[in-house]
Design brief:
- The longest helix has 19 residues.
- Helices cover about 60% and strands about 15% of the residues.
- It is globular and about 50 Å long.
- It has one domain.
- Strand 1 and strand 2 form a beta hairpin.
- With about 100 residues, it is of the alpha+beta class.
- It is built from 5 helices and 2 strands; from the N terminus they run ββααααα.
Length: about 100
C-alpha cells in the first residue's frame, strides 16, 4: 500500500492542482521524530508539526477512527515509541491543543 493518497484540489476556479496526502503512517513518523531533532535539524520541527497537524485535521474530518488506531498502534510498539509519541503530542499541543486532544486516550 502506498503511503500517499492522491487527490485533486482547486487553486482557483480554473486551475486544479494534484495533491499528495501522506497517510497516517507518515503522520506518526512526523510526531515521533520531533523530539529527536537536534542541532541543525531543530528548524525542521516547525515544519514537521505543521505537516502532522494538517494530516491529523484531514483524517479527523475524513476517518477519525484511523487517527485513534494510529495513536494506539504507536503507543503499543514499546517504551521508545511511546516516549517519542508523547513528546510529539506535547509539541503539537503547543501548536494546536484541540488537535492534540485527538491523540489522548
Amino acid at each position: 500500500m502506498s503511503d500517499t493518497l492522491r487527490a485533486t484540489g482547486f487553486k482557483t476556479k480554473r486551475e486544479a492542482v494534484e495533491l499528495g496526502l501522506k497517510t497516517l503512517l507518515r503522520l506518526i513518523h512526523k510526531l515521533l521524530i520531533i523530539g529527536e531533532r537536534t542541532g541543525a535539524f531543530t528548524a525542521k520541527v516547525t515544519k514537521d508539526l505543521a505537516q502532522a497537524a494538517s494530516l491529523i485535521e484531514f483524517f479527523r474530518d475524513t476517518d477519525p477512527e484511523a487517527v485513534r488506531e494510529a495513536r494506539a498502534d504507536a503507543l503499543s510498539r514499546g517504551p521508545g515509541w511511546k516516549k517519542r509519541a508523547l513528546e510529539g503530542r506535547r509539541a503539537l499541543a503547543a501548536l494546536d491543543s484541540e488537535l492534540a486532544e485527538l491523540l489522548v486516550s
